[in-house]
Design the sequence.
């Protein structure tokens, strides 16, 4: 990718927009104001209140002034879709963060990750588009930009990763030794003696039912007698 921002073009662009001149007439076909949004790689892109200009003679994929963003469709279309989006957002970054190429790169990375069009593969494509360019008076070297892109991308991904809520510790009751307050009474004994005056005990039955002895002369009478003998302990 050639230089993304050409500061020397800003006075020229302002002059073109100010008043008619022979140079303006000659460039009328190549230049076109398209408003404040443009479709790139199937996405509608905008940069706040910045105006967008198409300039087929711009010797770069994009450029930016203080309130204007310039694109060269002929050069942009030679780049992968992700790079086209990155160029636009990088130039938009200049309008927001100033002249720093690295900060404009980071601006584009964060917006690309947030909007979902920039991943690791796309980041490599952006880095490849620098074509290994050396350090210049206006731009860092491709190597330095790529290293900065990686750091920005890692930070942007971390900011997008939801943080799991910390578990709330459960407070357990303090350990205490069980206290035995009374011994279980042994039966048979009177119910009132076993329970005492202030306790109530619920049971399925007081005593096992008496057995019916077979062959007795009066089995029913025998049963009534036995039941009467055991009834005393259930009172």
Sequence:
């Amino acid at each position: 990718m050639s230089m993304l921002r050409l500061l020397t073009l800003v006075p020229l662009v302002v002059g073109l927009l100010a008043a008619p001149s022979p140079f303006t007439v000659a460039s009328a076909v190549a230049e076109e104001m398209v408003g404040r949004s443009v479709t790139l790689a199937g996405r509608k892109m905008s940069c706040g209140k910045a105006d967008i200009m198409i300039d087929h003679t711009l010797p770069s994929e994009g450029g930016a002034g203080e309130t204007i963003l310039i694109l060269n469709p002929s050069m942009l279309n030679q780049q992968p879709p992700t790079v086209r989006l990155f160029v636009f957002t990088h130039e938009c970054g200049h309008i927001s963060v100033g002249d720093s190429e690295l900060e404009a790169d980071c601006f584009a990375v964060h917006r690309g990750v947030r909007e979902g069009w920039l991943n690791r593969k796309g980041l490599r494509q952006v880095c490849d588009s620098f074509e290994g360019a050396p350090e210049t008076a206006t731009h860092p070297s491709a190597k330095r930009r790529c290293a900065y892109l990686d750091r920005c991308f890692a930070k942007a991904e971390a900011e997008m990763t939801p943080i799991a809520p910390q578990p709330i510790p459960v407070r357990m009751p303090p350990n205490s030794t069980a206290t035995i307050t009374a011994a279980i009474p042994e039966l048979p004994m009177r119910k009132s003696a076993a329970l005492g005056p202030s306790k109530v005990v619920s049971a399925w039955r007081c005593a096992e039912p008496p057995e019916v002895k077979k062959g007795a002369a009066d089995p029913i009478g025998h049963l009534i007698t036995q039941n009467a003998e055991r009834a005393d302990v259930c009172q």
